[in-house]
């Protein structure tokens, strides 16, 4: 039997290096920058006001006090968005709003709350009251309430380093520097194909012996959560020709094909039968539970291009655990994302057995326990128990040589959410 690690390496080898692509900033959420992004503009791009108030020449207010206010005429009105260049004449002030460009010659902004215009204190007078005189009762330090051009970032500097995962704040910065697009590692296109003559689509009545197909939506969701562009195609029955026809249809549009079912030791193992005949895929028994029968390799698309394929076992728990162990890490590496789930050491509540010679991944419910963690194994080990999979938030990773774990021992846990 092949070790988990050896099979992980075989699968890793199917993935080439990350591929850079230019995407719209609005489509870049969760992706990772492939290059440093240098800003072509400074932020702020011009000196502007940090407050709603009056742009002044500080020297004009040097003698202002409550007893001896200084009253100056308002010579201009500068809302945000005004694009002409104004100059403040000494002995006058300009009404200015937050984010509006500071007039030349002004060296401070007095917040409106600290002024009075006529009888109106602490507020702007209504605009229709004609030329206004503004009363100041204190001096103001030079530079006060001014956002200086380039004080955030200067044109030519790196705004976002290569290798940065793009989330709301980073996308905000990219937009602020005027970037419409950004160079990132692209999402691989994953196509999921389930196999099995017993499978039925939702909305249809089940006949005796049939089941609803659940692996393809589950695996596509797992691939999407990992960051890939995943889609499902309609499942195929256990028929080699039908399977190969569907593979030929999807191969041209996939960077990775993931199949489920048809790889174990039964009599109608469609995936195994079909791909052993075409070659390019190796099938192995991997020393793990769940998920022993596995396969990986390449199929060729209609243009003769090799497309990676990973063939997972059909039991729902096996297929999802296999995805976690074998597919999620290289898929994320391909996008420049951190490959691994968080791992914690937790105290086991209850005792469990584990098959000799197999690395076991048990479903568990992980909880905080003071400063540490505690994990409850849930559900029997057999791999059709989707209910317990859906109730788990962690996988307990039991090493190959361990056959029993007693209540209260420390175990290694993969955190799923
Ligand atoms: P297989 O790997 O094809 O031998 O399937 C193993 C078990 O998983 C059988 O009980 C199948 O009915 C079940 N199974 C296989 N594929 C799916 C699927 N796509 N959805 C739900 N159950 C499946
Ligand atoms: Mg099957």
Question: Could you give a short description of this structure?
Answer:
With 417 residues, the chain is of the alpha+beta class. 18% of the residues lie in helices and 32% in strands.
Give an overview of the whole structure.
It contains seven helices and 29 strands. The model has no long low-confidence stretch (mean pLDDT 96). Helix 1 (4-12) packs across helix 6 and helix 4 packs across helix 5 (270-278). It folds into four domains: 4-18 and 187-333, Molybdenum Cofactor Biosythetic Enzyme, Chain A, CATH 3.40.980; 21-43 and 155-185, Molybdopterin biosynthesis moea protein, domain 2 (Alpha-Beta Complex); 48-147, Molybdopterin biosynthesis moeA protein, domain 3; 343-415, MoeA, C-terminal, domain IV (Beta-clip). A hairpin with a 5-residue loop joins strand 21 (293-300) and strand 22 (306-312). Strands 7-4-6-5-10-8-9 form a seven-stranded mixed sheet, with no helix packed on it. It has a six-stranded mixed sheet with strand order 17-14-18-22-21-19, sandwiched between helices. A five-stranded mixed barrel has the order 23-26-25-27-29. By secondary structure, the chain is an alpha+beta fold. The protein starts with a helix and ends with a strand. It has helices spanning 4-12, 168-176, 215-226, 240-251, 270-278, 316-333, 386-391, and strands spanning 20-24, 37-38, 48-49, 53-56, 70-78, 93-96, 108-111, 115-117, 120-121, 133-136, 146-147, 158-160, 181-185, 189-195, 199-200, 211-212, 229-236, 256-260, 281-285, 288-289, 293-300, 306-312, 343-348, 352-353, 359-369, 372-377, 394-398, 404-405, 410-415. The site of adenosine monophosphate has 17 residues, from loops. It is an enzyme of class 2 (transferase). It catalyses: adenylyl-molybdopterin + molybdate = Mo-molybdopterin + AMP + H(+). Belongs to the MoeA family. Residues 191-333 form the MoaB/Mog domain. Pathway: Cofactor biosynthesis; molybdopterin biosynthesis.
């Amino acid at each position: 039997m092949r070790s988990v690690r050896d099979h992980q390496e075989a699968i890793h080898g199917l993935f080439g290096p990350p591929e850079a692509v230019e995407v719209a900033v609005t489509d870049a959420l969760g992706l990772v920058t492939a290059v440093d992004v240098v800003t072509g503009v400074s932020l702020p791009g011009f000196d502007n006001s940090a407050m709603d108030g009056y742009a002044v020449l500080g020297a004009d207010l040097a003698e202002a006090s409550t007893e001896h206010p200084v009253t100056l005429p308002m010579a201009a009105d500068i809302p945000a968005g005004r694009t002409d260049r104004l100059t403040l004449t000494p002995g006058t002030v300009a009404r200015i709003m937050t984010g509006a460009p500071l007039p030349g010659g002004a060296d401070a902004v007095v917040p409106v709350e600290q002024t009075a215009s006529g009888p109106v204190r602490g507020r702007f007078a209504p605009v229709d009251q004609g030329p206004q005189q503004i009363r100041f009762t204190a001096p103001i330090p030079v530079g006060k309430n001014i956002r200086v051009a380039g004080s955030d970032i200067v044109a030519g500097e790196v705004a976002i380093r290569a290798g940065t995962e793009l989330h709301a704040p980073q996308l905000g910065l990219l937009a602020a520097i005027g970037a419409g697009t950004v160079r990132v590692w692209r999402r691989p296109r994953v196509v999921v194909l389930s196999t099995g003559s017993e499978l039925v689509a939702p909305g249809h009545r089940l006949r005796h012996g049939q089941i609803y197909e659940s692996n393809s939506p589950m695996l596509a969701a797992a691939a999407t959560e990992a960051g890939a562009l995943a889609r499902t195609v309609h499942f195929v029955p256990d028929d080699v020709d039908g399977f190969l026809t569907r593979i030929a249809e999807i191969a041209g549009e996939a960077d990775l094909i993931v199949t489920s079912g048809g790889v174990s030791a039964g009599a109608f193992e469609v995936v195994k039968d079909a791909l052993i005949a075409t070659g390019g895929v190796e099938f192995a028994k991997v020393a793990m539970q769940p998920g022993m029968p596995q396969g990986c390799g390449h199929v060729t698309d209609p243009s003769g291009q090799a497309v990676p394929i990973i063939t997972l076992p059909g039991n729902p728990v096996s297929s999802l655990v296999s995805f976690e162990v074998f597919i999620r890490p290289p898929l994320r590496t391909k996008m420049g994302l951190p490959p691994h789930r968080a791992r914690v050491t937790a105290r086991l509540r209850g005792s469990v057995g584990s098959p000799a010679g197999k690395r076991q991944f048990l479903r568990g419910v992980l909880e905080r326990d003071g400063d540490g963690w505690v994990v409850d194994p849930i559900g029997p080990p057999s791999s059709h128990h989707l209910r317990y999979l859906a109730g788990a938030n962690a996988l307990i990773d039991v090493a190959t040589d361990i056959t029993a774990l007693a209540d209260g021992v420390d175990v290694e846990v993969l955190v799923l959410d």
